[in-house]
TrEMBL record:
It comes from the Eukaryota. InterPro entries: NAD(P)-bd_dom_sf (IPR036291), SDR_fam (IPR002347). It holds the Pfam family adh_short. GO terms for molecular function: oxidoreductase activity. Keywords: Oxidoreductase. PANTHER family: RETINOL DEHYDROGENASE (PTHR24320), RETINOL DEHYDROGENASE 11 (PTHR24320:SF283). This is Oxidoreductase. The lineage of its organism: Eukaryota, Fungi, Dikarya, Basidiomycota, Agaricomycotina. Belongs to the short-chain dehydrogenases/reductases (SDR) family.
Length: 313
């Protein structure tokens, strides 16, 4: 089976239904209108048990209500997870570890983009903390539950925006904000998503699969921090009203296809750690600094330091 730009999350999930039915999948960042919400919907459609994880209960419930309306028998539950707080991440992970069934797949979809400079309660720049460190901690803490599955996968939703910048190993906090550039910071965090999948795959080899991906460009609430100046600066990619334009535009339905392929396609198992775009493997579309194995190791060690815990198989 091959998938491409014409695929949607629903068409991929339907094609891979036999791999998805009955599996437990945690999807983070399920706000209505975004990739996560559509991922929940298409997984539920083919009989997955889906855990809707996020920081805003009302938004989780809105997505849950919409999915239940369409699929009354959907097996859904909620998980409160604030990725910008290591305390919250640890509490959410403890809840997952108490489940009485394995977790087969976690799709780390939640993220923020282009936020003004802010440090989290753990002292980390907000985009790096939310988009990478929170994911790193959550995924590692729930690995025992994933390893109970016969075919566990971790999917890190990255972005073509990783081209905006590498991980700033010596200054991930932008000199405490003095030299902050919100696009370099988004780039850093999305580069980290790709490196994270590489090192996770390297450490766990055939015991666990990890993939990263770019879903496409769609107008979602991710764009809430973009200003008129940002749209002008990136006028090749956005219209003046903030809607994406050009070759990278994918509807939410289309972008979701890449998430489902990364999470379930059996034909990619031989490419553990790889990056996907447009519902297929596309490692050549990642920046060299985002696929560098030394950078992946270095980021793992830095992340362990920043969460105060070592994670090795
Ligand atoms: N849209 C695009 O064009 C595009 C392009 C490339 C990559 N992506 C990636 O796709 C993923 C999904 O984005 P989207 O476009 O679907 O936007 P979205 O609908 O805004 O999804 C982002 C989700 O992340 C959640 N979130 C933000 N901060 C969080 C935190 N601290 N803790 C827990 N959850 C948090 C949001 O929850 P709240 O609503 O409660 O804040 C929301 O549910 C992101 O990783 C993004 O980088 C998107």
């Amino acid at each position: 089976m091959t998938f491409d730009t014409s695929s949607t999350g629903e068409s991929v999930a339907t094609a891979l239904a036999s791999c998805i039915k009955g599996k437990t999948v945690i999807v983070t960042g399920v706000t209505p209108g975004g990739y996560g919400a559509e991922t929940v919907r298409v997984l539920a459609l083919v009989g997955a048990k889906v855990v809707l994880a996020g920081r805003t209960l009302s938004k989780i419930q809105a997505t849950m209500g919409a999915v239940k309306k369409e699929i009354p028998g959907a097996d859904l539950k909620t998980l409160i997870l604030e990725l910008g707080s290591q305390k919250s991440v640890r509490e959410a992970a403890a809840e997952v570890l108490a489940y009485d069934t394995p977790v087969d797949v976690v799709i780390l979809n939640a993220g923020v983009m282009g936020t003004p400079y802010e440090k989290t309660e753990d002292g980390l720049e907000l985009q790096f903390a939310t988009n990478h460190i929170g994911n790193f901690l959550f995924a590692n803490l729930i690995i025992p539950k994933l390893l109970e599955s016969p075919a566990p996968r971790v999917v890190a939703v990255g972005s073509v925006g990783h081209f905006w910048g590498p991980v700033r190993f010596d200054d991930y906090n932008f000199e405490d904000g003095k030299v902050y550039d919100k696009w370099l910071a988004y780039g850093q965090s999305k580069t980290a998503n790709i490196l994270f999948a590489i090192e996770l795959a390297e450490l766990y080899k055939d015991r666990l699969l990890a993939f990263s991906l770019h879903p496409g460009g769609a107008a979602t609430s991710l764009n809430q921090h973009m200003t008129k100046e940002d749209y002008e600066k990136f006028s090749d990619f956005f219209n003046s009203d903030g809607t994406p334009k050009g070759d990278w535009v994918r509807s939410v339905a289309e972008g979701t296809a890449t998430q489902i392929v990364a999470a379930f396609d059996p034909s990619i198992v031989g490419s553990n750690g790889s990056y996907l775009v447009d519902a297929k493997l596309a490692p050549e579309q990642a920046a060299p600094y985002a696929t560098d194995k030394d950078n992946a190791k270095k980021l793992w060690e830095l992340s362990e330091t920043l969460v105060g815990q070592k994670f090795r198989p």
